[in-house]
Amino acid sequence: MDIKEIYWLDELCKDHNDIVGKKCANLGELVNLGLRVPYGFALSVAAYETFMEQTGLKEKVSQIVEKEINAGLDVDKEIGRMIEMSANIREAIEAADVPPGLAGQISNYYAELQKKTGIPDVPCAVRSSGAVSMPGQMETYLNIRGTSEIIRNVKKVWASAFTTRAIVFRIQNKMPISWAPIGIAVIMMIEAKSAGVILTVLPTAGDLDRAIVEGNFGLGESVVSGEITPDSFIIHKNDMCIESRSVAEKTKMVVYGPSGTTVEDVPAELCKESCIDDREILEIVRIAKDVEQHFGAPQDMEWVVDQRFSFPENIFWVQARGAKYTKKEAGKDEDYVIDLMVQLFRK
Amino acid sequence: MKIYDCVPGLEFDEVVDFEISPAWFQDATHSVPPWTPMFGWFWVNFCRHGMQYGAEKLSLPTVKGWDWRFKDGGGYLALLIVQDPNERKAREERFRVAIRPFIEDFGGMWRGYVDEIVGRYDKLKALNLEAATNIELLENFEETINTCRRMWEIHMYMMYGVYTAFVLFEQMTKQLLGFDDSSPQFHKLMSGFDNKCFQVDKGLFDLAKKAESMGLKDLFLSTEAANMKTALLQSPKGQEFLTTFDDFMEKEAGWRLERMAEINVPTWLEEPAPAFAVIKMAIEKGMSYNLDEDRKKLEAERIATEKEVLGKIAPEQRGWFQTMMKLAQDCSWFSEEHNHYLDLYAHALVRRSVMGVGARFAKEGAIDTRDDILFLIPDEVRRAGINPGMFNLRSLVERRKADWKQWCAQAPAPAFMKEGFTFEDAMGGLVGSMDPIALKVVVGSMPVVRPELKADLFGVCGSPGTVEGTVKVVWTEAELSKIVKGDIMVAPTTSPSWTPVFSILGGVIVDRGASLSHAAIVGREYGIPVVMNTFQGTTVLKDGMRIRLDANMGAIYILDK
Fold first, then answer.
1. Buried b / exposed e along B327-366 (16+ C-beta atoms within 10 A)
2. I need a labelling partner for B520 at 20 to 30 A (CA). Which of A115, A162, B112, B337 fits?
């Protein structure tokens, strides 16, 4: 296929890793699995390259670096000079104008996104999506509204390919200095009532018959980072019954602030309440089971319940990957029962 | 030659047998009233063989099965306990390997054995007894002996294995969850399973429905069960019904005797009156076959209880706990279903073969009547088998028949005890054996007397619930007809052929029983309260008394004192 500069997420799948980076490819894959993913589009690695070439930045960046190296810069020791160089490059990138063709495309996709969501100036997250694992490239800008702000933050993500560590990494590995296989995901912000994870296996027991759902109010970071004790539910995957539930006292939650995320107190009247209802839990399990079946392996997935929409349109997925778990040794339960039986006769 | 022994080599002998065990218990469940010599021979030889076979095949660490003796028509048993700690250890190692198939696939094992044993039954049935030669009859008899022995091997091997799991599960619920097999919660976990015995009952209820839909209701209501067949033959509709009925008897329900452990009464196939009585009772008393409905409810209740119980077990412990619970649940339905495929079916075929030989012996003059064969034993059948006309076995029959009549007239000894040995010592020995069958079928739990309840009688919960109703004391199947809807049946113990009446009972009280006794299993499946091990229910409670039964507390209150 012809490589485009911008794609809708539903045009992508996991095979597009090199074109749009891992995050975008994964989100596309989720869409293709029939999962509801926050609406959005992806800027490809080609978009970055267009930007760097047409603005002359590619050459300019190389010159800056070469000049410093020729002047005897010791990459390992002169951290101060490296930091300064990185700042210069990033400033240059952020100051450059995005070529009109590309800027027009971004503007068109964003306009279309506003239509899709029905939200004017829909707030978006602008996230980097690296095609390979590289230092840096972890930038995420939240709550970005309006075309010009989107474009400004897209440039910030591109600039993040030139953190000090990223530059050092490329110099040491003798890679072209401006080579960065970086894509960008521009996706609608979720207004999270609650969020969390589901594992379609009990990881420590290796129990493949059950799934565990954990969640908290607000965004999923508090659950993923393990900083709070989340609500926790164990569901039998065949019977689809909630076998055990532990609703924790949740004191803190993560929400979007003016820039990025902040930690807030959970409102007192909510902190002992379950962050999701049974219907939502079972819908989350149902979908995760489908994904598990598709991949033929237990899944570790991140879900968000958006308070603006009604069930089941309120459940969004932001991540799906193979779950890590301790494989149950075959016959272990049987061995233990036999041990117990032997004990019975020893009394 | 002591030709009058009924079970040569296994007659009780005080001098020799007290050396093997200081106490021999009567098997009151199966050998009261006293066995005929022929049946006693089959039971004592092969139940004994089966238990030792099962215990050995499983290599149970503490027990090598039971030894049995025959005395005055009664079966007496003693446990073969492994005393040497080193031997226990060696047996334990083999046990680990032998028990595994039960844990991995009990259901599959059982289906395999059902196929095997039913295959043997079909071969036995293939011989036309009346047309057979003497040699064929004798061969059929010998093969019946082998089949009966094989039945007991399967029976006790399976029973020992799965009962071990049951005992373990009960112990673990006690340790981890604080309840044992006398608690309603435990019984809920064991309820809501179908089994072959219930399917036979359902067939009988379906026949009742069919009779009504064919307009035969009045005929059933106005005719005694004993005359039903003759009455049905009078009309084309009746004949049509009989075709369906006979087919069901031949394929499903007919291979059973009213008394599970005896062959001196006809099978339902020979004499279908008991089956007609059930159908008549179903029509008369408006019994509906409600087990399917009930079972759905019980099943839902069981699943809810399973969840509740599992919620109290740490997630990483649930795997083995569920494995064990599953096997204990298998044990519950197996306890009932095995009666159909093993005891009832095999003994019906023992009767068939024995009666075939009896008829031939009577015809050729070795004995007077067909049923006199019950007073002979296999050695004597062999003696006269090929040429019955050449032997006169009447003196043996006369002597044994006189003995048997005397056994029936006297109260049997509940146990034989070596001098200085007490009943408590003996019970202690049973419990110490850890023999799962002894624990869950023979001994059971002792009632807990709770004075604060001010109840009149205490027993052990066999199936949870509370009910008020009228007492009907039942000793034999014939007395079942006096039961009306809502009555509380009081009996020494219950038999699988009594099952259909459970659908109209309000509750059940039995003198003896444990959580795997018939009354408990069937009571659980019908969702009615059952109290067991009252020891004196049949003496204290009288027909017509109004009582309240609180099975949860094991308490019985007489209301009209």
1. bbbbbbbbbbbbbbbbbbbbbbbbbbbbbbbbbbbbeeeb
2. B112
